[in-house]
Amino acid sequence: MIPGLSDILELLEEVAPSRLAEPWDNPGLQVGSYTQSIKKIYAALDATPESLQSARINDAQLLLTHHPLIFKPISRLDRDVFPGNTILEAGKRDIAIVAAHTNLDVAVGGINDILADLLGLERVEVLQEMEGFEGVGLGRVGDLKNSRAVPELLEDLKRILDVDQLRVVGKTDQKVRRIAVVGGSGASLSSLASQKGSDMLLTRDVGYHHAVEAQLLGIVLIDGGHFHTEKAAFTVFAKRFGEMIRARGWECLVEVDDEECDPVSFS
Known about the structure:
Udp-n-acetylmuramoylalanyl-d-glutamate--2,6- Diaminopimelate Ligase, Chain: A, domain 1; globular
């Protein structure tokens, strides 16, 4: 069976229910028709003209992204300006666009759980639970099998996240056993991570005042970058989503955009 877009959306809703999203967020269908047949899904972090072009070249009918293309109501569509150019081109090419954002961050098996898996954490629990949802919430905290020196762990993180450098706050001449991860802007959770016994917090978008707080708490704070922390986890999610699709007997492939690059560079 070749699934329709409505089938894909129903499966995505099972994995990352839209009710878990932040009030300001806009997950789900961005562009497209529920009746479209989907033979191939192309997964990218963002719905940009470049990722849409790659989806078209790879003969995909759906561009699945982490970040929504549309956050606020749009008063006009300008073909020469983003996001109008992407929306109009997607419509012209019959390529649907769907996003799974903060709902995927907090869901069981979502971005935070995947980050914990990538780090090899054991006895994982939710860092900040959402009221009324068991096992759901922002961030995860767990233990390494064995304590590790910070410099050694940093090299592993660079490999996992595919980065050349990391922003680090705190003393690196210590051993780390318990680690918190937040696949979002989680530096404000340093205090909670410390309360739960964490020696280290991996997150992104660390501001100056959050760095000062983490330093005073004595916790090692790692900024893995917005793009790389999410790209590493979303790539794993896309592959797992493809396995879920195959388990249902649907004739639909999932391909990941490996050419997508961080819009921020260092010079």
